Amino acid sequence: MVTTQQSSTKQDILEYLVKHAQATAVELAAALDISPQAIRRHLKDLEVEDLIVYSSVQAGMGRPQHVYKLSSKGRDRLRREAADSYGEFAVSLLDTVAQTVGHDQVSSILRKQWERKAQEYRDRLGNGSLHQRVETLVELRKAEGYMAEYHPIDSNESESGDRFILMEHNCAISNLAESFPSICGHELEMFAAVLPDCTVERTHWIINGEHRCGYLVQARKVRS
C-alpha cells in the first residue's frame, strides 16, 4: 500500500510539472496537500531516476530555492504512457505506407482519419452551449490521454461572444507527430470542424519546444 501511494504521489508530481512547467517543493506540497518533507523525499527519488531536474534561484535574502522541472526523460516517459494505445507500430505502418504510395497520399489518409474523428466528436458533443461543448470535448480528449483542460476568458466586449483556451499538456500521438508533422495541422482543422460556429487558433505547440499545445476557441460574431 505504501509503495502504491508513493508511486501515485510521484506520478502526481510529474503531471503537475507537465501542466505548470516548473515548481518549488513548497508549491508542490501545497498543490498536492503533502508535507514539504515528504515532497522532498519524492523529488529526491525522481532526481535519482533522472525524471526531473532543478535549478537554484535566489529568492530575497534567504537560501536559494530549488525550482524543479521535467527532464527530457521525464517528459518522454509521460508521452510514452499516453501513447501506449498507438505505439511504434503506428509510426512504422505510416512509414511503410509513405514508402509505398508517397507522403502526399499519407497526408490525404490522415486528413480522412481526422474528418472521421471530427464527426465522432460532433456526435458526442451535441447541440448544447459552446461552454458545454468545450467541456465535453475536453473530457473526451482527457480520456484519450491528452491531459486536456480549458479555461473561460472574460471579455469586456459582449459582442465577441464566448472565448475559451483549450490546453493539452500531453500529446498522445507525439511519436506520430514527430514523423508526420502534418498531423498537427489536421488536428487544428479537426477542432475547427467540431466547433463550426467558432474560430480556432493555435496558441501553443509542443513541437515548437513549448510544454503544451494550446488553442483559442472563440464564438463567431453574429451579424445583426
From TrEMBL:
<dbReference type="Pfam" id="PF13412">
    <property type="entry name" value="HTH_24"/>
</dbReference>
<dbReference type="InterPro" id="IPR011991">
    <property type="entry name" value="ArsR-like_HTH"/>
</dbReference>
<dbReference type="InterPro" id="IPR014075">
    <property type="entry name" value="SUF_FeS_clus_asmb_SufR_cyano"/>
</dbReference>
<protein>
    <submittedName>
        <fullName>Iron-sulfur cluster biosynthesis transcriptional regulator SufR</fullName>
    </submittedName>
</protein>
<dbReference type="InterPro" id="IPR036388">
    <property type="entry name" value="WH-like_DNA-bd_sf"/>
</dbReference>
<dbReference type="InterPro" id="IPR036390">
    <property type="entry name" value="WH_DNA-bd_sf"/>
</dbReference>
